[in-house]
Amino acid sequence: MPRFVVLALLWVAVVGLLVIGRYPQPIARQEAQIADAAQRGDTVAVYRLGSDYLARNAALPGAAAVRAALAGAATDTAAVQP
Amino acid sequence: MTPTRAFQLFHLLVLLVFAGTGLRFAGFSVIVDDELRNLLTVQNIAATGSVWLTEARVALYQSQFGDRWPLPRSAVGQYGYSKHGVANLIPLVPLYLVQPRLIFLGNLPWLLLILYILRRWQRQWQRPEANYYYAALFLIFGSTVTPYWFTLYPHLFVAAMLLACCHWGSDYADTGRPAARWLAALAGAGMIISRPETVVLLVLPLLALAVRSARARRWPGLLTVGGLAALAVGYTAVLHWLRTGNPLDSGEGMFSWSADGLLGNIVQPHRNLFLTNLPLLLLFPEWRQLRRLAPALAAAISAWLLYSSWHGWHYGYMRYLQVCVVLLLPALLLVRIRPLALVLLAGGLLLNTPYFFLPLFDVAQSMGASDAVPGAWHDPWAALQLLLLLLRGLLAG
Questions:
Q1: Partners of B73 in beta bridges
Q2: Mean pLDDT across the stretch A29-51?
Q3: How many CB atoms neighbour CB B342 within 10 A?
Q4: How much is the pTM?
Q5: What 8-state DSSP symbol labels residue B147?
């Protein structure tokens, strides 16, 4: 393996080790946004983000919390009016 | 470390990087209409065994994109279906049944096929092993930069099939192995069935291979190539006729080349200067060896023509980035490794590292761009801004 390739892989590994713990990764960030909206009581945002999340990630461990947030939002009848 | 061990270690790391990025980004906000159709089709096949979508899925799609790109209905039975083919989706169904998130790794086999072809070419062309590693590195970084690496777009599949068609066709034209002829035909057919309009990409490489077969007096090869071209054109014409009533009209407003598009796609290297600039990279090959590249080069020219005719060439470049990255790889095998090439490659690696950890669509969000008008994705300096953002975050932390 050329030295250049070893250096490139090491560079990715170092940046990765520095970054992954510090920046929440996409799915975790989406879950945090939904939890945030639920806490704020922003039902419209919970519906939009939550349904989008569940359409693709229904099998993830975070899906249970998203379902709970959606169920909570469903009690707010104002949000489901057309 | 022996060369074999280094080879194995390198590919283990490649697998780790691709699988890791794919799983971390799986299902994140990367869904546009083409992708949603694919996702719904996979879900539908897994649930009902049919490619005709249930009315609930049709309604879900129409609610999001029905006003701009309505779902077509079949002439018989009026069932809703994904307007593109499903050849690339079938292998995703068992993955979906095991664990839905795994379908976002569906591109992995095609990436491995591309690496396999590169390795074969490197050996056949008797190029130094270092060239294979540079090409593989280019593939990893170039693919990760595009959001399509971990999405359900069929562009990577199309690119892999195109490269496979060039590889096996070239193999047949050079050696006369009949198996290579049939593999080339299979790859070409898979590509046409998955994404009919990309049939244009096949025409020039087929011509290049036909010329080579004719020169070697391999008439069955010529027949296969000609048959494949006829199949491609016929299949596309029938699809167009079904959709618009006119075999020449795709109904998508394509094939209107503009000088802006043709020139723009060549002279705007600021769109990722280091990794995707075909003219720049072609400065480096050894010209005596360029004849070997004929089919792949012809495919690259077709890609340039097709995507320059796209009504949205100036903002839709991410679509063909993946195909272009793949088409550049054979040229990289012929590059004589000079300091300037290494500087360009190093610049690209440095700039594009953040994309391994923050997906491009996330960049659009962090820059405050809306999902509907993703201007920031195409900002020529997006990669640099992202790197600075990352470094600032790290320094502040």
A1: B80
A2: 88
A3: 13
A4: 0.83
A5: G
